[in-house]
Design goal:
about 100 residues; mainly alpha; about 65% helix; globular
Length: about 100
């Protein structure tokens, strides 16, 4: 993956992670906000990799919270998150305990 593509994916993940935290009324770390809000035109490199944090957050949801935040058909962010989660599960197998 090229540097540009990786940065775009990291930015998208930060955007989704911020959405999840905000939807729960949690504080979003400044580094996540900076990554989410950068548009690639400035010299800020999106170096925040929050894939593990986002996946852990989603794994911790009960079914009601998951439905409300991830499967909310009225929210574009939720649809993007649902797609991200589906792709994550395809490419990164969930741990079985």
């Amino acid at each position: 993956m090229s540097h540009y593509n990786k940065e775009m994916q990291l930015r998208k993940t930060c955007k989704l992670y911020a959405y999840v935290l905000e939807a729960q009324g949690k504080e979003v770390p400044e580094s996540i906000l900076e990554c989410r809000d950068s548009n690639g035109s400035e010299e800020y490199d999106c170096l925040v990799d929050c894939v593990a944090d986002l996946s852990q957050e989603l794994k911790s949801f009960d079914s009601e919270t998951f439905e409300e935040i991830v499967n909310n058909t009225q929210s574009e962010e939720a649809r993007e998150l649902a797609h991200w989660w589906a792709m994550y599960q395809l490419y990164i197998p969930l741990e079985t305990n």
